[in-house]
Amino acid sequence: MLTNIIRITDFSDPNLDVYTKLNEAQLFHYDHDKQGLFIVESPKVIERAIRAGYEPLSILLEEKNMQRDLTELKQEIQLNQTAIPNQLDELPIYALDDTLLYELKKKGYNLLRGALGAFKRNQRPDLAEFVNVINGSKHHPRIAVLENVVNPANVGAIFRSAAALGIDGVVITTDSSDPLYRRSSRASMGTVFQIPWTYVDANTWYEKGITQLHELGYQIAAMALRKDTIAINDPKLQAVEKLAIILGSEGPGLKEATIDKSDFTIKIPMSSGVDSLNVAAASAVAFFELGRNRQ
To answer: Which GO terms describe its molecular function (predicted)?
Structure first.
């Protein structure tokens, strides 16, 4: 029987602050050992975050479903043999009184999805360090770059596709939605904790990001429509040793300067009358084609 369960009966309880008083941007900049925090949902995603090396600070549960969610979390931990930095029997576990659920839901949290967990963020490597690790561990690496992809659900879906379809790492510009935002990690089904990724400062990316990737041995494939655009199944792409696939904003797409500096512009062949897919759907098609049959 766990002895570290703390029952919450007052919505003003300071233990709820990280769950109820801070928005995503405030959590990102929260000065907890100068790292920032993030919130995840469901026992499965909590376990994946722990397994990826993120340090949990607390777990928040709905009291009436507490045993169900704790059992599910323990099962996930045992199934994956997760090494937990803060053991489950030492971690603060807050059980929310049923009468407070309505107030919490008004803040955007629906505990019917399961447990919530508050975690410390990890430090991310810079672009060169990140790519060098990928280069050293993968044969004919394929990475994705998300440029100004602002919808968190799309970011999460892209990560899920990348993890499932052979992409070795993801680089995301800081003017995109954060992969650790709650909606992103939920849409990714926890794969933001599975696939390697890092941030690149947006200004740095637009000034010299593609040049830096070229220096690191990559050719660049920008998903865009131009006269010289080639299909994603073009044999030239399969022959590229190191390939970076760049996806852009859901509306305007990639910046012209990004396209100009790229080695290829690529498209998904489509039926007449349709000229584009949602960026998340397009990423799945591109990753499937470009992540397979590497020569």
So the answer is: RNA binding; RNA methyltransferase activity
pTM of structure: 0.87
The Cα–Cα gap between 55 and 80 comes to: 17
Please report where in the chains the tokens 């397994």 appear, as a residue: 51
Phi, psi of 121 (to 5 degrees): -75, 155
Give the Cα-Cα-Cα angle 213, 219, 225 (nearest 5 degrees). Answer: 110
Mean pLDDT in residue range 29-51: 83
Confirm if 224 and 254 have CB atoms less than 8 A apart: yes
Q: What was the pLDDT predicted at 272?
A: 65
Q: Which of 15, 60, 54, 18 is nearest to 42 (CA)?
A: 60
The amino acid present at 274, given as its one-letter code, is: V
Between 238 and 162, whose confidence is greater?
162
Residues 6+ apart with CB under 8 A from 10: 100
Q: Hey, what domains does the chain have and what are their CATH numbers?
A: 5-120 (3.30.1330.30), 127-290 (3.40.1280.10)
pLDDT, residue 95, reads 86
Residue reference for tokens 């430090």: 123
- Token pair of 98, please? 């049923």
Q: Which phi and psi angles does 93 have, rounded to 5°? A: -120, 110
Let me know: does 157 contact 279? Beta carbons within 8 Å: no
